[in-house]
Amino acid sequence: MKGEPLHLKVVVRVKPEYRGAFERELMAVREKCIAEKECLVFDVERRTDDPTVYLLVETWSDPDYFENVQLSRDYYPA
Q1: How far apart are CA 75 and CA 28, in angstroms?
Q2: How many C-beta atoms lie closer than 10 Å to residue 16's C-beta?
Q3: Interior/surface letters 29-53, b for 16+ CB within 10 angstroms, e for the rest
Q4: pLDDT of 10-43, one tens digit each?
Q5: Do the Cβ atoms of 58 and 33 come closer than 8 Å?
Q6: Of 54, 39, 29, nearest in space to 5 by CA
Q7: Which of 57, 42, 49 is nearest to 12 (CA)?
């Protein structure tokens, strides 16, 4: 059932030696997510004072879709 959109904010800290691999994988996941019509926003920010900290901001149009479909996608880390 569609209700209010679901807004997610996730803070991730990555070990410096894994930053490059993390960014590549994250951008691949982002591309797949934004191709989903239910994904309204998928923004990625990296702190300027600490480049190992990322803020992920997602908005999904349907919370039920997110919980029952998106979380089970093989590319989406739950």
Answers
A1: 9
A2: 8
A3: bbeebeebebbeebeeeeeeeeeee
A4: 999 999 999 999 999 999 999 999 999 999 999 9
A5: yes
A6: 39
A7: 57
